[in-house]
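User: Sequence recovery, please. Input:
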């Protein structure tokens, strides 16, 4: 159990190779930010498990989807998390959302309904990717107010392509701990097909 601004947060992550991929290129990180960034749970290899000077008191939850089929996707996702941790250490601007689908932007704009987006050939097209060609990758920064009793989920599309939003919501509501929730979500993705690496980070804020 971690503490952030006086609120207890049960936060855990998990990554699974899935049923069809040869390698797992996803990465996740759960860290407590005090006088140092103290990494408490991550899939990153040992060279990335370091401490960084910081004066903040917060939590840092990250998921990086290593794009399959591209060169060194796993290394790219590791470097991405490492770079963000260094950036947060120095600036504390930690509202990063590194990858977003064209599909989600069209849903948000009203151009697609949810049913139309699910069938769209654009559903797997990324508008932003670290190391992508043609332009600099700029972060989108947003803020969401969380209250005691809320649950926060970060995940790769290895989950959402196999588990409908309604089922994800039910699993988040029915599991009592972050560990149980992450295991249930990973299990549902594998049962649904497991065609991709699947990674989740769950944060449950104590009521």
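Assistant: Recovered sequence (207 residues):
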């Amino acid at each position: 159990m971690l503490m952030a601004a006086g609120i207890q947060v049960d936060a855990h992550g998990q990554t699974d190779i899935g049923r069809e991929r040869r390698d797992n290129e996803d990465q996740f990180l759960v860290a407590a930010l005090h006088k140092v960034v103290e990494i408490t749970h991550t899939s990153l290899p040992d060279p990335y498990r370091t401490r960084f000077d910081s004066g903040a008191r917060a939590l840092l939850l990250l998921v990086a989807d290593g794009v399959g089929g591209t060169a060194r996707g796993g290394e790219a996702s590791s470097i991405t998390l490492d770079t963000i941790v260094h950036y947060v250490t120095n600036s504390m601007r930690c509202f990063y959302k590194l990858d977003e689908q064209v599909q989600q932007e069209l849903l948000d704009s009203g151009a697609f309904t949810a049913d139309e987006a699910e069938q769209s050939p654009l559903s797997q097209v990324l508008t932003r990717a670290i190391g992508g060609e043609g332009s600099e990758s700029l972060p989108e920064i947003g803020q969401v107010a969380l209250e005691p009793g809320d649950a926060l989920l970060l995940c790769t599309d290895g989950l959402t392509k196999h588990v409908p939003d309604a089922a994800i919501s039910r699993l988040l509501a029915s599991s009592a701990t972050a560990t149980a929730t992450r295991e249930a979500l990973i299990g549902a993705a594998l049962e649904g097909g497991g065609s991709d690496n699947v990674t989740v980070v769950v944060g449950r804020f104590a009521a």
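The beta strands are 2-4, 7-16, 27-33, 36-42, 52-53, 58-64, 96-97, 140-141, 151-155, 198-205.
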